[in-house]
Design brief:
Layout lengths: L1 H9 L13 H13 L2 H14 L1
Length: 53
């Protein structure tokens, strides 16, 4: 998850991700899959509920 936050904050291209996060193609594929499955939306809603309590 940290890699998605890092990419959104820094707004760098996937190819420029630090090797710490792994192969950029794998990270990009995972991100696209999570978007299609709405995992990021569900996660965001759950974190928001946790913050409110």
């Amino acid at each position: 998850m940290n890699v998605f936050i890092y990419q959104m904050i820094t707004d760098i291209p996937w190819r420029a991700l630090p090797r710490l996060f792994g192969e950029w193609r794998s990270v990009c594929r995972r991100f696209n899959f999570w978007q299609k499955m709405e995992i990021l939306v569900k996660l965001s809603k759950q974190l928001s509920k946790m913050a409110d309590s």
